[in-house]
Amino acid sequence: MKKLTLEEISKDPNTKILIFQTPTDYAYNENGINFVKKNFAIKNVTNSQGEDIRFVAGEMISNAVMHGNKRNSDKKIEIYCLWFEKNFYFVIKDEGEGFDIDNPLYSVICPPEGSLGIELTKTKMNLVYNFKDSASYICKKI
Fold first, then answer.
1. How many domains does the chain have?
2. Which residue from 9, 56, 101, 140 has the highest number of Cβ atoms inside 10 Å of its Cβ?
3. CATH of residue 71
4. Centroid of chain to Cα 23
5. What letter does residue 14 receive in the DSSP assignment?
6. pLDDT tens column, 25-73
């Protein structure tokens, strides 16, 4: 399983892309979640795998809305989906400052909301990474 960059993912002609404005409310963006789940379901996958993808997409989109774009409705979120060999990659990119996905907690006594979602994502997916920027890469091997 390879850590593909956003440039590599974007250049693939099979990549599907969705760009939307950050919602002004706290709710997950169902269009983004459904976009990821629909592109995952192109291959024969189980219902439980689909539900894992739905959960992870919701967590990562929520983090992008709340922590990356800080609920600013003028900012955009980009979602990229790609099947590469037997691996499903999806990328959630916001307009935030970026962070280290391997160490998402800040050095404070009470961690910020959102870090638990990243840790749960890591348990459900095969590969979760970033390049200490504002894009989160998630990969599920089938």
1. 1
2. 56
3. 3.30.565.10
4. 16
5. T
6. 656 688 899 999 999 999 988 889 999 999 999 999 988 998 899 989 8
Among the residues of the chain, which ranges form H helices? Answer: 6-11, 30-40, 47-63, 115-124
Q: How far is CA 18 from CA 31, 69, 100, in A?
A: 9, 16, 24
| Structural domain boundaries, residue 53 | 6-141
Is the separation of the CB atoms in 92 and 127 below 8 Å? no
Q: State how far Cα 100 lies from the chain centre.
A: 14
Q: CB within 8 A of 5, min separation 6: which ones?
A: 131
**Rounded distance, CA 87 to CA 139, Å?**
6
CA 4/CA 6 separation, integer angstroms? 7
